Amino acid sequence: MHLSLLQRSAALRYLLFTALLLLCQPVHAIKFTLDAHRYPPAKCVWNAAHPGALVIVTANIGPGEYQRIDIEILDSGPQRNVYLSKKAVSGEKRFAITAHSEEDVGVCFRNYLDPGVPIEAKSRSRIIDLDVDIGADAVDYNAIANQESLSGLETEMRKLEGVVKEIVDEMEYLKKREERFQTTNISTNTRVQSFAWLTILSLVGLGLWQIFHLRAFFKRKYLID
């Protein structure tokens, strides 16, 4: 009985430790200064996202005269799918998208300098505070708690449920990728094997043709009977 209680206590501590580890999610936040130009290059911040994942982008753009900030959210696929494009963004803005591909999602900024800016004011920049939440991090559990009248413990359990679901989805995604890689590997091995047999048969056929050709040549020259 005493041993059973110790085992239950150890299991409970292990579950609590695992829950704390699962709740320690990385924070995708960054703060940087973006210089203004007449033809500015894009400043992009990329994050990995799986298909169907909710992505919440919160951008807090500082003040700045004679400047215009444009924002664009796209993925890194060959087709460069654009999820959102906004011009003249200022202040704190919040955008929500859903990823449609297995590529990374990028948040790109361009800081345009107004054509009529005075010469003495050409060196300009603005500060951008960017926060990107993906998957379970993007869910507003406080709003859910207020809507469903959840207690603090129930809210934490709901967060943990979302994190566990995200981990399960991640494992399913990795499993599908492994199956796809295995299928590709088998197909490649089959093609290599087929090419090897074709090469061997071609060499054997070419050797036999050379033998018969030389035999016919020597017979014409009366070198052999």
UniProtKB/TrEMBL annotation:
Top-level lineage group: Eukaryota
Which positions carry the signal peptide feature in this UniProt record?
1-29
Membrane-traversing stretches: 194-212
Protein name, UniProt field: Endoplasmic reticulum vesicle protein
- Sorted alphabetically, which keywords does the UniProt record give? Coiled coil, Membrane, Signal, Transmembrane, Transmembrane helix
| InterPro entries found in the cross-reference section | Emp24-like, GOLD_dom
Q: Where in the cell is it found?
A: Membrane
Record GO cellular component, one term:
membrane
Q: Which family does it belong to?
A: Belongs to the EMP24/GP25L family.
Q: How does it sit in the membrane?
A: Single-pass type I membrane protein
Q: Which sequence ranges form a coiled-coil region, renumbered to this chain?
A: 150-177
* Major subcellular site: membrane
Ranges where the GOLD domain occurs = 29-219
